[in-house]
Amino acid sequence: MRFERRDHPSRGLTLLAPLGAILAALLGAGVLIAIAGANPLEAYGLILKGALGSRLGFSEMLTRATPLILTGLAAAVAFRARLWNIGGEGQFYMGALAVAAFGMIPAIASLPAPLAILLCLIAGAVAGMVLLLLPLGLRLKFGVDEVVTTLLLNFVAVLFVSLMIEGAMKDPLAFGWPQSVPVPDSAVLPKLMERTRLHAGLVIAVVMAVAVWWIQSRTVFGMRARATGLNPRAASFAGVPLGRTLIVVACLSGGMAGLAGAIEVMGVKGYVSTDLSPSYGYSGIIIAMLANLNPLGVIAAALFSAVMFVGADSMSRALGIPSYIADVTVALSLLTMLVAIFLTQYRIRK
Predict the structure, then answer these.
(1) Run of H or E residues at 193
(2) How many domains does the chain have?
(3) Is the CA virtual torsion 149, 154, 158, 161 positive or negative?
(4) How many CB atoms lie within 10 A of CB 87?
(5) CA-CA distances (angstroms) from residue 190 to 6, 57, 199?
(6) pLDDT tens for residues 185-206?
(7) Of 192, 201, 182, 189, residue with least CA distance to 260
(8) CA atoms within 13 A on the CB side of 268
(9) Are 123 and 258 in contact (CB under 8 A)?
(10) What is the CATH number of the domain that holds 142?
(11) Residue 53 lies in domain
(12) What is the rounded distance in angstroms from the CA atom of residue 8 to the CA atom of residue 326?
């Protein structure tokens, strides 16, 4: 038996791969649920009911999906061009910190809400860009592997955030709790649903996903980025400026992750703390792979993950099964998706 590369993977097979991967992951997680002594179908029903069966659950699911869409886009954009950005977590935190720092400027707090929100969002995106441009510069100049540098910068960024919220940016009214000063009211994102945490960041995330899809599929830069990812040597021979293309990709990818952190502060938390992110940056990698690096698919993958995370809490209370089954299911989805991607690229020959 051997694997033979497909000349032209069918569009139908490519579209069905994520669905098959998620189904396989649900079957695998169902076995673990059965071992724990519960009915898998009942468990999945409770997950759906917890995430979609009430106004609160539905709004919390969309709130959870918002940063996942943006961090998923950050990974998808970079991976498409073979820029292995594993630093989404650090970029997320730097974007959040930039918003809090910007909000401390009295001139920003006195601005009208639309302008203050726009400037804070830009500040968060730029902070994420800078944190990714540093390892990219090391790669382009010295050939340093960006997988290592972006991963290690996650810890540097979180420790830097901890230093700032314990020092210069610490909120004097937080009773000693390590958190930054809150963002001004003029920079708070408006709510989409009253008496919920759902905010306008969801609209921004969806618009950014559509914009990235359009850029990748309808512009010269998108063609250059895809060519760089498919075959850098051939792209260079064809006249694609690899360095400049990767710099723009890094700005787009890091900007998305930084924007996710900014939106989380401006829409949900209101201040920066070291527990701001339940691994949104790392989860974005899983989201991107589940979407097969498709920007529009990122929205669906983020919604699936958000349903699992939010609904698992309700299921856990009802059946006594640890809510970590959601993490297991999402992790299994990544593994099965990798297998599905391989099978779309290769066929088995005897």
Answers:
(1) none
(2) 1
(3) positive
(4) 31
(5) 49, 19, 6
(6) 999 999 999 889 999 999 999 9
(7) 201
(8) 22
(9) no
(10) 1.10.3470
(11) 2-349
(12) 35
